[in-house]
Amino acid sequence: MKKRKSIQWVVIISVVLSLLLAACSGGGSEGTTTKDQKQSPNLTAPGAFPIVEKLEEISMYTPKISWITDWDNNVATKWLEKKTNIKLKFTLGPEAADEGKQKLNLMLASGSELPDVFLKSGLSTDQIATYGEQGLFLPLNDYIKKDGVNIKKLTEKYPNLLKQITAPDGNIYALPMVSECMHCMYAQRFWINKKWLTATNMKMPETPDELYNVLKAFQKGTDLNGNKKQDEIPLISTTNGWNGDLTGFLMNPFVASTGKGYGWLYMDNNKIKASYMQDGWRDGLKYLKKLYDEKLLDQEAFSLKVDQAKVLIGGPDGNRVGAFADGALSSLIQIDTPGARDEFVVVPPLKGSNGKRITPWYEPFGAPSYVITKSADNPGAAFRLGDALAVDYSHDLEWRNFFYGQEGATWVKPEKGVKGLNGEQALWKQTFQWGSPTNQFWASVGILYAAADDKGTLAVSNDGSFNQEQILWNAAVNDYKQYGASIIPPPIFYKKDEAEAIAEPKTQLTNYVEKSIMEFITGKKDIDKDWDAYKKDIEKLGYDKYLSTMQKAYDRQYK
Question: What whole-number distance in Å separates Cα of residue 324 and Cα of residue 332?
């Protein structure tokens, strides 16, 4: 009897030690081991279709899109199910972002009734890191190494991609979405009225001083818009445009600036710096103040909204505007009718005092988009499905049918000789009006990799008619790409204490800097006399701790 009990205890102790050893062996930068990472006998070879031999079901949570009329019986859904042999069961979250966040928070807090996959659900990097470490989300490190096909192709093209999606504990809890939207990569654009340039006999400006002279000519010009009123506004700026803030494009000749959207932070030899603490920032403010003082810059620049700007450009008095910064014409102009849309051309980056031009290159970062949860019965199949969605479909018409709808229903093949945005033979012409009710595809939800040639191979009209896609593509390729600078800080995963440490200073600094920009330009503060006090105020708001915390997290993730 005693001997039998001894044997039982030996077995129990052996099992416990085995579990402890297994747990200890999972740490480190290679990521931890998760359940069912052994190859399921139902899985086919990596990259092969169908993904599973016998039919399996995967549940998927994704936000609702009002104009997608049916997900379960969607044409794209049925095609994907047949190709992969995986039955998809959708749970649709709220379409409104705020409601979606509340829904996610409730689901994560309960930890129960999770879907197998969260697809572009709105999960933040902090949530992914936190709940991944708690075990709600599965590490994908081993899956990427053993079963990844499309994701590996992306990591070869973008060597930092895996670093971008690696949580502080060394694990990767989400497959990324990578977009090579050409005009998005060079979105800090500036537009000028070519009609007014001609009327005032001015050439395209290449420096801040030349731009000043052009704006001055616009101001002195006689009824440039032909409405029999002297109501022209040389330069406007909006507070809610796309890269439309004053301290983006117009600041770069003086100091590298990524604009308000990136907190005016930029990279310099792997160091995170703030534009607003550099001497060049002060020089840029002086330039902007000069424009404001001489009424070359709209006096409502610090309160003007996009909808109000559209009235200035396309109201009953015609176009009253000479220039503005924004990523797209359509932000401020009604482009569906002739008129103002045809008057503006893009201005290349302005030269600084050193003769150099720069524009931020918005490198295609990996946005965590496809998360597999602990509820997945076959995580290997779920991973393979996500890897399939990262295919380069730009030259693959079969997958284009999935992502954009069936040929003939939402797009057609162009005739021979029709050019795409990239100047080569076009592969597709869209016939679907985006936003119209359809059950042909999933909008852009399923896309985990959008190559530049996705848009590059899109057919454009050869008759010279207005085409914003072509205008933006040409601007990026011909006027901005050659000056692109990799200065935008990449995505950073923060530990919980780090995220808490930077949250309040980030908000306070953004608010203070934005307020100070207005006060310096409008004259409420003196740029020279109050500059030192301004920098001290920034330091009091926790600037040093804010930057050092970000730098520490950056070094851990990217060095």
Answer: 9
